Amino acid sequence: MGKVATVNPFLGMAGGRTSKRRGGEWFSALVVTTASGTIDAAASDPIEEARITVVKTATKTGRYTITLPDKYRKFCGGFVTILGPDDANIGANTKGLDAFFRDNDVDGGANDGTIELQFVQASYADAELPDGVSFIVTLLAMRGI
């Protein structure tokens, strides 16, 4: 009988078979917006804390380009949390209240270490966030072997 494997969520399996998805790194950034999805850089997490940059994608509605700090073998997903106002209505269903990732250039495409975050309205058409809304984006990328 083989040796019992131990599990480390960032290094994969040790002993027996090993995972090729080793060296996982989590990234998280708070992004504060003003009008029309413009980023308030002074209120958002600085790159020194988040280790990723988030910028509004020029000429695209409700889209942000996220750049990781280094080359990674695999983009393993992520999630977005929208932070609405204390008491006021968050906005109409024509505002970006749902999100998904697109244009994976972390491990494919241009392979430039970027991925895009797209906000959409209730009908899934691209849409800007409600004015003054913040969001937290969290990503997992693997260095691999």
Question: How would you describe this structure to a colleague?
Answer:
With about 140 residues, the protein is mainly β. The chain has one domain. The protein contains 1 helix and 9 strands. It has one helix at about 45-50; strands at about 5-10, 10-15, 25-30, 55, 65, 75-85, 100-105, 115-120, 135-140. The strands form 3 sheets. A 4-stranded antiparallel sheet has the order 4-5-8-7, with no helix packed on it. A hairpin with a 3-residue loop joins β1 and β2. The chain is globular and about 45 Å long. The relative contact order is 0.27. Mean pLDDT is about 85; it is low at about 1-5 and about 10-15.
| pLDDT averaged over residues | 87
Task: Describe the sheet with the most strands.
Answer: 4 strands, antiparallel
Spatial separation of the terminal alpha carbons: 27 Å
Order of helices and strands: EEEHEEEEEE
- Tally of helical segments: 1
Spatial order of the strands forming the largest sheet:
4-5-8-7
Label the structural class: mainly beta
Helical percentage: under 10%
Q: Radius of gyration, Cα only, in angstroms?
A: 18 Å
Number of strands: 9
Sheet-strand content, in percent, reads 35-45%
Uncertain residue ranges:
1-5, 12-17
Features of the shown structure:
3-stranded antiparallel beta sheet, disordered N terminus, 3% helix, 145 residues, mainly beta, 1 helix
Record the SSE blueprint.
Blueprint: E1 6-8, E2 12-14, E3 24-32, H1 47-50, E4 53-56, E5 63-67, E6 74-83, E7 98-105, E8 114-120, E9 134-142
Antiparallel strand pairs: 1-2, 3-9, 4-5, 5-8, 6-9, 7-8
